[in-house]
């Protein structure tokens, strides 16, 4: 059982190449996406105006509105992606697990109602420039009366979390007295001892 309230950061919340990805979103992807979205919005409205025989002044006005709407939507999406990259993190404090993308979600294992493990297929590049290959990535899900937290069990470089983090998670999950907790704790300990257990 984990005691004390010292924060233990998990590598699951780290982002590979975080600074470079933020740079690309700020300098390249963000500006291009917002400008293209504004142009597309204006173009769509102009086409609709031509089809419906809208007056030239009305078409111009609505084109500006369409451009502004898509521009703002794209800008909001870009800001969200940048914030998610900058703020992404996961950590443990005692029996509490917090996962943050933009918004932080926290569950206390001591009062958890359900613990489960699942796996999702993700595309992963083993080497820079290599072709993406599908990999099965395990997730830990913990629910209490207020929220559900999903923790991705791979680090920023694509490998499973280190054995020491798996053992810490096993200790924390063992605090829970709810369906799935005992099985999850056993799985964490098994994978920490031999990662090949994941595929057995």
Q: Could you state the order of secondary-structure elements as H and E?
A: EHHEEEEEEHH
* Shape estimate: elongated
Low-pLDDT segments, ≥5 res: none
- Derived from helix and strand composition plus strand pairing, the structural class reads alpha+beta
Tally the helices.
4
Helix content: 40-55%
End-to-end separation in angstroms reads 27 Å
Mean pLDDT: 85
Number of strands: 7
Radius of gyration: 23 Å
Largest sheet: 4 strands, antiparallel
Query: Strand portion, in percent?
Result: 15-25%
Strands ordered across the widest β-sheet: 1-2-3-4
Helix/strand layout:
Elements lengths: L6 E3 L8 H34 L4 H32 L1 E5 L2 E5 L3 E5 L5 E11 L8 E11 L4 E5 L10 H11 L7 H13 L7
Antiparallel strand pairs: 1-2, 2-3, 3-4, 5-6, 6-7
Helix pairs in contact: 1-2, 3-4
